[in-house]
Design a protein that fits this description.
Strand content: under 5%
Shape: elongated
Oligomer: single chain
Radius of gyration: 19 Å
Largest sheet: none
Distance between the termini: 40 Å
Structural class: mainly alpha
Mean pLDDT: 85
Number of strands: 0
Helix content: 55-70%
Low-confidence stretches: 180-202
């Protein structure tokens, strides 16, 4: 079995059972190979987890990079990035799904590796939010973390047949400030304009 195929099988098992509960033996069984043969490709389970996570970063990062090309407007770029993030996350992509997994229970060296990979991906959103014409004094770090938390949390409640990833992304960006046609502000006005006051997100 190729390394790429093994990564795909591993990603689906980790997405289904979690990093801790999924063993190398579980993955080998799904891959139709001996457990010992996996160590030819990956010296340890932690190395396998890191490789799967890195593949997820590459997949979703590539989608975001492609989505923002050709646009100059900062709000349009952010909305396009959010749409690409959601489309990848919600497309039954196991590689992308593991990027939203809980990392706190992993051993510290592995957690640091994965956090570094996650931070590398999120630097795209740091730059996108930095370019926004937000109100003076707006906390851009909190703004960005709020947005990413909302995007990643969508996987919990999203059901096919409801709002599309593009519509969800548009709504989230609008509520945080991207609907320049709206006039109602959230709180003190620093958080942005409310576009979906009465419409549910699901």
């Amino acid at each position: 079995m190729s390394r790429e195929k093994l990564l795909s099988v591993s990603a689906r098992q980790f997405a289904k059972g979690g990093f801790e509960a999924t063993s190398m033996r579980d993955i080998a069984k799904q891959a139709g190979m001996l457990a010992g043969s996996m160590y030819y490709h990956f010296p340890s389970k932690n190395d396998l987890i890191a490789a799967v996570y890195e593949a997820g970063v590459a997949e979703i990062g590539g989608a975001v990079d492609r989505a923002v090309r050709g646009s100059q407007d900062p709000w349009e770029r952010l909305e396009a990035a959010c749409t690409a993030h959601l489309e990848t996350l919600l497309a039954d992509s196991a590689h992308a799904a593991v990027m939203t997994a809980e990392l706190r229970r992993l051993d510290p060296p592995l957690r640091r590796r994965l956090v570094a990979l996650r931070d590398r991906y999120e630097r795209r959103f740091v730059a996108l939010v930095e370019a926004l014409p937000l109100a003076a004094g707006a906390d851009r770090t909190l703004w960005r973390l709020h947005l990413l938390g909302a995007l990643n949390g969508t996987a919990i409640w999203y059901r096919p047949g409801g709002k599309s990833p593009a519509a969800i992304a548009k709504g989230l960006v609008a509520m945080l400030g991207g609907d320049r046609s709206a006039t109602t502000t959230l709180g003190s006005g620093r958080c942005g304009r409310l576009a979906l006051a009465s419409e549910g997100m699901a």
